[in-house]
Design a protein that fits this description.
Four copies of one chain form a homotetramer. The first copy, chain A, is α/β, with parallel strands linked by helices and 348 residues long. The first copy, chain A, has eleven helices and 21 strands. In chain A, the strands form five sheets. In chain A, strands 3, 7, 8, 11, 12, 20 and 21 form a seven-stranded mixed β-sheet that branches. In chain A, strands 15-14-13-16-17-19 form a six-stranded parallel β-sheet, sandwiched between helices. In chain A, helix 4 packs across helix 5 and helix 5 runs parallel beside helix 6. In chain A, 55% of the residues are buried. At the A-B interface, strand 17, strand 18, helix 9 and strand 19 of A face strand 17, strand 18, helix 9 and strand 19 of B. Strand 19 of chain C pairs antiparallel with strand 19 of chain D, so a sheet runs across the interface.
């Protein structure tokens, strides 16, 4: 008996449709998840608004979404460790475990990665914005009783922030700058605070996201569009910050950040942009590092654990929830940085 | 009794004069070195050709030079460890040991650094291109018997290469790309080979320096102006190289290098340039690092030790030697990459 | 005019006297601190009970104490940054900044270290258990308004815990075992929790200190004298813990810890003991590391900052306070692990 | 048609027999290697002399051997990259690639490892001392033309030395002590020298192996049974060496090594022993690290590459070669440290 489910399929820029699709079958080692909540990510927005980003474009209809949590509705006979009724966050990442990077412990660099809702390969990997999802049992991480599904849906972007922190090295005693307070930025603020940064300063050009950064752990915030002298105030003795988590993808943010970094400071670059101009002599003279951070791996289970234990309150990150049927409205709002941080879709 | 000495003083672009100057007095802890050989560095060339680089410009007459070796002619009564007649390489770096960076073990980031022949601060720190030099005993590292003064004069630029290697992390099993085969580039090739890189590939746009890179340890060389497909040939499976030592300061070299780096690869940036455009998305997606490397510190003694023990033959690096009186001709030749690698001045 | 002050002088094992001494004079760069609170450390107890530990024995009368906080009563004319009336924690560590280890950024390994109340060198370095203390302005770190002097006196042992955490590498996602819940152990628990350990399990053979460990951040505690199967329960798949902070100096604790460590796990050894027997084959086969951690340096200012900001509540660590005059009673109680954790002396 | 081959089977201590066995069949992805040379390892000797070591004992007849090289005689139809006639070194390590440690990039810690000639699991993993060996194509690394089979047989123990060096961190400018000059020790000397150690000092209690250490790269050697003052001579200023590669498994060697290590020095422990007593206070006070190193993984291909390129001359390591039929005599000689270093068996 074939299962059908409802999904959010992108056909072309702004042409996002709620439609029926084949839900697939539950194979060995797999489970069926009744999706509860799903968060709209910046990459979903790029597909929605522009049909992709950089060289990555949708070439065929694709289900969006990779930040979901739900309830297990069925399990294959050979599955252990996941049971019907379990509430789970679903890891959208599916490395091959056979390529050289998987063998080196770098599955996020897998040469044959499958990641929900991504047009990086063709045929595209279909996404998780649907009410029924067949996935591997090992992608499911259990949510603790009492944790709302909406927080569990933050596990994926929070993992991105945690991975960035792990790329930064130990934060003990470190002064951390986080530039760009979109969802990744504020979750990076939370991740840095949780791992002992001595100070976490968040910057943005809009006040509303800065207020949320403050709620999840920023020591102080700077609206760099208004406080024009902020670079000068943080440049004495070659600079103030040990670590920067660059979440904006903005050239000016990166360049200003390099100015206020101390010698040997580490900039972890998460934000995606295009070509950016950097001052080579300053990088050399202060021996700065710029280190890319891409997705995550082991951090997904850690993100769920932290949310389960309530070690940090991420509720301020979720600003709105829409029913699946109102997806287009949800996507339109999600791009408004004054009103929305993380917008969730309710698939239940 | 005042000592006088002869020096090479830059007054304005291309206005380099052999003239007399006060040699100073030997204070406590100091020695007098009769300078033998001195190497012309890229920064010396910038002062000679353009009066400086970037924001650093000569504002008053300045003695050039910071790559020198010589023979100790006198020592203060309190000096131990250095004796008259010792042949020594002179470390041009003089950190304060009192600032926060010195206290953190980063003397090359000293807030009050004095470095021979540098216009970074005003009054400028006078350089070492002179026949008599008063310096601190602790700046002197003894040259082994039989080591020619010309090789000892390479200790400073070799230190720069060694410091870059130390910034790259362990090279065991690593494939290393060195871009830009000026004196720093070829000495970086030597340093990488000496520290166990599995492969060292050197690139440049001129054949002659590549031939020298081959002599000091490159596994193979690529003239990237001719082998246009070199990037494509090294990009499979996300890239070939683990480490890049970027010694050109050239934007194209850096960008091509990022293409051929493996995920998690480390680019050590030594070459000075201006603003360069880098592909932010590639840095993120491959989790690359770009790390500045500036001068050196502990590596100076190591450079002399390696030269003393003859563990690598650096003689191919020195291409010409001119008497001090012919300094202008030496400087003019030093900029010709087809004919000259390291040009030395003989002060004896 | 000579100043006199009252101090706690050890003359021989258990012969601890409250007596008058010369308070010294305030030299350039120095301040006079009216000591408020001082904590009794394990080394103080060793001097009191046994006249020393290992090869370190008191050879002449010595003022004890190195964990003190107080109020600045006078400052030398050249001092900036510290003012009369400032409440300060006093860093008992005084490196030379001239030896090779200081120049490498390892001042805690200084070859000419002076550390309050230590018989490591002769003449001994006199301690800080006195009502008036002349020290260098740079040893003083300001306490925030409202922070009780009793918490400020914890800055030194807390620094030891923070240094151990910095030796362990990043704790993100790590399961941490802390063995031995004396004052250093419970402060190491707090330090690990504050720097993001995914789990902190504290062990001891006495229940009372375990209860305090729980209060300052342990995820769970194990009385290893009672739960005999704890090693077996944590040994599956080669072991459970990524990091161990060994604070007991006990051979059995270390050996059991090695059993429950995962491959590549890191044991940070803080606890002092004598010769201990370790299973070489297990260290090899699981590629475990045992890393010593000694005192601290930069962590002192960090400890005060964390206490100032109230980022963790360390009040449960202080169990009793005695007036200076009752020092002998205080020292006698301080050794009773069922009743006392950190015992303070009030010098005001 | 079933293949039969000749092998060296251990039945009980000293009961080593040349006998016939089933050679197995070539499955998908597999090749048949006609074994040329095989080196006798310390663990082979333990099985031969004592029936095992520690808790690992032979419980059933087992073919010995894991250091072999040979010529490919047949390949499965699906194999690419290995061809009939290829001369190859055979990696004896076969991790599962499915357990958590394999997924973390630590295959040498695999929970389901199969390693030739090991009684760690029962049924034992049969070894490679036989004239015909069926193995996976991916275990084969090609030997360059002209490289003798005898040097290729060193790839496995050389990998162990290279892995130890990779555990030590960068060796640039480091002074390295290697204690115990058995085959692993001298190959560790070679590995350290090749990766740029500033000095490599080898110690042993027998002169003959020290002479071989000198030939493969030791800067100097010390017979610690004769030069009784060697510890005192290397203990000034808290110690001389930055890195120790402990290859003896001897308690005294380790303890003396800790004495002569500088603060923050790293001891890489490769030698297997039993319980050893270490001075806890010295580990703490000098902040020393003892880090286990077990087998290898990526280093096997690197070892073959280095041997192929002739970057170091390992010929002095091989002291004798015996035909397979004289295996008992070979094993008897292999234990005599005055006469034998690495003894090879010829299976051709």
């Amino acid at each position: 008996m074939k299962m059908r489910c409802m999904c959010l399929m992108i056909h072309a820029p702004t042409d996002l449709r709620v439609e029926e699709m084949d839900a697939g079958e539950i194979g060995p080692g797999q489970v069926l998840v009744r999706v509860g909540m799903g968060g709209i990510c910046g990459s979903d927005l790029h597909y929605f608004n522009h049909g992709g980003f950089g060289a990555i474009r949708i070439k065929e209809p694709m289900v969006l979404g990779h930040e979901v949590a739900g309830t297990v509705a069925a399990v294959a006979p050979d599955v252990t460790g996941v049971r019907i009724g379990d509430r789970v966050a679903v890891n959208p990442s599916h490395p091959c475990w056979n390529c050289k990077f998987c063998h080196e412990g770098l599955p996020n660099q897998c040469l044959d990665m499958r990641y929900y809702g991504s047009a990086m390969r063709t045929p595209h990997v279909q996404g998780a914005f649907r009410n029924l999802l067949v996935c591997n049992a090992e992608q499911c991480v259990q949510i603790a009783p009492g944790v709302p599904m909406s927080l569990a849906a933050l596990a994926e972007p929070f993992s991105v922030g945690l991975h960035a922190v792990s790329r930064a090295g130990p934060l003990i005693g470190k002064r951390v700058l986080v530039s760009g307070c979109g969802p990744i930025g504020v979750l990076a603020v939370a991740a840095a605070r949780l791992h002992g940064a001595a100070e976490v300063v968040a910057t943005d050009v809009v006040d509303e996201p800065l207020a949320i950064a403050q709620k999840v752990g920023a020591s102080r915030t700077i609206n760099v569009a208004q406080e024009k002298d902020w670079v000068a105030r943080h440049s004495a003795d070659k600079g103030t910050f040990d670590v920067m988590l660059e979440c904006s993808g903005n050239e000016r943010a990166l360049r200003d950040g390099l100015e206020v970094m101390r010698p040997r400071g580490v900039v972890v670059q998460l934000g995606l942009g295009g070509d950016v101009s950097v001052p080579q002599n300053m990088i050399v003279a202060k021996e700065l590092s710029i280190c890319g951070s891409f997705r995550f791996h082991a951090e997904f289970a850690l993100a769920v654990q932290i949310i389960n234990e309530g070690r940090i309150d991420l509720r301020p990150v979720v600003t709105q929830t829409f029913p699946m049927q109102d997806a287009v409205a949800a996507f339109q709002l999600a791009g408004d940085r004054k009103r929305a941080m993380k917008v969730l879709l309710d698939f239940a």
